[in-house]
């Protein structure tokens, strides 16, 4: 048994709705492309307008302000437009390739030449600094506190300004010096006049001084002593100077120097002793240490027997033994004896009486004429 279907194929129809839908969907992307193109055109136009529109630039040339309206795109174009040239030593606060924006600030400082002298050598240098101190720093010139700068650091820079830097250097050196010893002279009354005796040898001392030397550009200009210290003291040389009057050594051949007459006695003498001291002695124990029982009692050093009015004791270095002398106020006497206490210009006059010898005592200021071995007649 078969069955036959009664279904038939549907018929296709068109309508306004079915036509409009496919058209709108297919062209949507074209609308987007067109819109993007229009937006890009507007943005490009705006950018082009900005780039081609005049911009206000504040330009300072050596601190002289200028307000410029320009369409230049870069700093280099602006400078070319304004006929401004930047040299090797000039300063520009922005790069030449920088693009100019509205209200940009551009500063130019032109360098000026200065005549710089350092260590005596002069050369031309260029600087944009305002003062001497700034110029030296700008040029890399090292200056310490001792160096001299002319003119001063605060002096304003002008074209062809002369600037001098003097290098000041201080050096401290040690100088060792000898201290000379002093010579000290002392009087010695036991030493004969004209003679000297070295008591202490002199020795030089030593001192060290700190010397400050100042150099200007390598040349010494001054020198001063900062301090001095004594390392070793000097030792004085001590010399004794003789003050004792010399004793003349007389002999029989010594010539007579003059002739005198005393108490009717005329004699020639070889020497005069002034300011002679006189004492008196006797032959006893008190003067000689001998009594009458002693075999040498009354015997003089020369072997004679003491006699009042003749015998005297003397210093043989002053009056030779056996010689006659004339003592002013006393008379003729002969040097026959000596004594331990009789030294120099001292004469001991012999007296027989102990009492008279004691009474005579010590008397000064006598003048004695030394005559010789022969008694005047």
From TrEMBL:
Keyword field: Membrane, Signal, Transmembrane, Transmembrane helix
Residue ranges of every copy of the G5 domain listed in the record: 165-245
Protein name, as recorded: 3D domain-containing protein
Top-level division of the source organism's lineage: Bacteria
InterPro entries, sorted: 3D_dom (IPR010611), 3D_YorM (IPR059180), DUF348 (IPR007137), G5_dom (IPR011098), Resuscitation_pf_RpfB (IPR051933), RlpA-like_sf (IPR036908)
Membrane-spanning residues: 30-48
Organism, scientific name: Marinicrinis sediminis
């Amino acid at each position: 048994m078969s069955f036959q279907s009664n279904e038939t194929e549907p018929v296709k129809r068109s309508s306004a709705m079915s036509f409009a839908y496919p058209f709108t969907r297919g062209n949507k992307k074209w609308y987007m492309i067109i819109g993007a193109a229009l937006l890009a055109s507007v943005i490009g136009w705006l950018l082009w307008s900005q780039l081609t529109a005049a911009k206000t630039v504040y330009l300072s040339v050596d601190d002289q302000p200028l307000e410029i309206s320009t369409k230049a795109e870069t700093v280099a174009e602006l400078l070319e437009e304004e006929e401004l040239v930047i040299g090797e030593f000039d300063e520009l606060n922005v790069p030449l390739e920088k693009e100019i924006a509205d209200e940009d600030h551009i500063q130019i400082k032109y360098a000026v030449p200065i005549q710089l002298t350092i260590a005596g050598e002069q050369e031309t240098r260029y600087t944009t600094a305002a003062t001497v101190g700034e110029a030296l720093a700008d040029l890399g010139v090292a200056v310490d506190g001792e160096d001299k700068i002319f003119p001063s650091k605060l002096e304003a820079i002008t074209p062809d300004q002369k600037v001098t830097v003097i290098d000041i250097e201080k050096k401290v050196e040690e100088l060792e010096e000898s201290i000379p010893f002093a010579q000290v002279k002392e009087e010695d009354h036991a030493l004969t006049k004209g003679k000297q005796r070295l008591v202490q040898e002199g020795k030089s001392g030593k001192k060290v001084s700190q010397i400050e030397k100042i150099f200007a550009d390598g040349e010494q200009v001054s020198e001063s002593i900062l301090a001095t210290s004594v390392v070793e003291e000097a030792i004085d040389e001590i010399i004794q100077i003789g003050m004792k009057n010399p004793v003349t050594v007389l002999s029989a051949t010594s010539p007579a120097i003059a002739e005198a007459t005393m108490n009717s006695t005329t004699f020639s003498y070889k020497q005069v002793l002034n300011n002679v001291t006189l004492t008196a002695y006797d032959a006893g124990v008190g003067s000689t240490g001998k009594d009458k029982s002693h075999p040498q009692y009354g015997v003089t050093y020369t072997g004679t027997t003491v006699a009042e009015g003749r015998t005297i004791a003397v210093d043989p270095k002053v009056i030779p033994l056996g010689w006659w002398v004339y003592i002013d106020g006393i008379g003729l006497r002969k040097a026959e004896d000596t004594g331990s206490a009789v030294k120099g210009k001292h004469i001991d006059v012999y007296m027989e009486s102990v009492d008279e010898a004691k009474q005579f005592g010590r008397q000064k200021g006598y003048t004695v004429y030394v005559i010789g071995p022969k008694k005047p007649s």
